Amino acid sequence: MARLYANENFPLPVVEELRLIGHDVLTIQETGRAGESTADEQVLQFAVAEERGLLTLNRRHFIRLHRASNDHFGIIVCTFDADFRGQAQRIHEALSACEDLRGQLIRVNRPSI
User: Fold this and answer.
1) Residue-wise pLDDT tens for the chain (113 aa)?
2) Radius of gyration (Cα) for the chain, nearest Å?
3) Which of 4, 7, 9, 40 has the maximal Cβ count within 10 Å?
4) What is the dihedral of CA 111, 73, 5, 31, to 10 degrees?
């Protein structure tokens, strides 16, 4: 299972579902850095230092950071989906399909209706 770091805007119910599946997910709130308006570069640096893939809804900024450097432990960019269980399952499936998360950009989108 993956070691992940959830950005401040990432839904806690999805984090909880991922944990139930077996993923090791740390949230920015659990690090005591919530509400600090931490720059995206610093969020990614923390994830790298902790050897964790980054979960975020902030797609545009983190795709840009990935394009600037793929020296990270994975970035999973998601669209918001109120079906938290379904979103967690899609993230799990995307992670399971990836042999090595290091340096990867994974997009997990809400299904089309």
Assistant:
1) 999 999 988 999 999 999 999 999 999 999 887 777 789 999 999 999 999 999 999 999 999 999 999 999 999 999 999 999 999 999 999 999 998 999 999 999 988 76
2) 13
3) 4
4) -160
- Of 97, 100, 53, nearest to 73 by C-alpha is 53
pTM: 0.93
- Look at residue 113 and tell me if it is in a domain: no
Burial environment of residue 36 by CB neighbours within 10 A (0 to 12, 13 to 18, 19 or more): exposed
Count: domains in the chain: 1
Instruction: Please tell me the distance from the alpha carbon of residue 49 to that of residue 46, in angstroms, as a whole number.
Output: 5
